[in-house]
What we know:
398 residues, alpha+beta, 2 domains, ten-stranded antiparallel sheet, eight-stranded mixed sheet, 6 helices, 40% strand, globular
Amino acid sequence: xxxxxxxxxxxxxxxxxxxxxxxxxxxxxxxxxxxxxxxxxxxxxxxxxxxxxxxxxxxxxxxxxxxxxxxxxxxxxxxxxxxxxxxxxxxxxxxxxxxxxxxxxxxxxxxxxxxxxxxxxxxxxxxxxxxxxxxxxxxxxxxxxxxxxxxxxxxxxxxxxxxxxxxxxxxxxxxxxxxxxxxxxxxxxxxxxxxxxxxxxxxxxxxxxxxxxxxxxxxxxxxxxxxxxxxxxxxxxxxxxxxxxxxxxxxxxxxxxxxxxxxxxxxxxxxxxxxxxxxxxxxxxxxxxxxxxxxxxxxxxxxxxxxxxxxxxxxxxxxxxxxxxxxxxxxxxxxxxxxxxxxxxxxxxxxxxxxxxxxxxxxxxxxxxxxxxxxxxxxxxxxxxxxxxxxxxxxxxx
Length: 398
């Protein structure tokens, strides 16, 4: 019997298509971790009190991806979902060519811009602007489009600047939550049901709720907006983040992080594919006041199984890197951060050997400032390649 088992294991090792261990067995990650990282001076402190999420999957893969765009018909569908009747309006199509200096390169290139949208300036309530649009850019020297976004926004008292009604229109969370927002008319479960209903009506692609957060409302005030002080503390809206699920693992959201370009070096420049995510905000009346689906992907059927490092290796990288990344500077002074969530999933990463992008297994450490900073909110503090342990710069994409 032992001889038979040994022969079977050897046979499995010879066949790369047969996995010997599922993802959790490979990474051996705990469900929760508490720790503190700090700089040599003690002026940068990162508290870690985080739940660790490992996908229930047999394996994680390297999966080639390219950029794509939204069909304009999605605008009308989304318009009717965020404001009933808006989808019956005629699409306004804008195509234009212009010039722009590509970031990191001195040359000036022509680029093509396409947008399609509907807008309603004032409704039967006479104090609401509702608009939905999709857009993308494309440089003539590259085949793939970039910067594709499908978005919708409903502004209360924005057009007339009446400065009386609060807008709850930021989809970027100030904090992730697992309980109802105090004094909010909606429960967390009700907010999630609204978001799920919209996503199910908008797409049949495999998306799942990643997190629920909260974001402050504001009263439109031109002077305060210019000063960056428009937040007035009049309560919070629910914010929801949805992510695409691939073979049991999620694309990890980057919230405000932007892949501006894959490299500032001329010899490595390729168009950025961005980070796909869906973010939305729900106000106190249950209205979806902001929706953003950015950087949609064309996902290849190709799958190359990856061998993952143990989580203790990734934690060692984080312990060394986080205090250096957020070291004290003249502007901020002492720095105190909290890592509250650590997730294993996919993120688009530039493959340096082929100069193409592929969904790559990564660990992302999510956190925020202490005390909580409503202007920054929860965000990816560190992303580490789960295969080789290298730190990924979300701006460069590698």
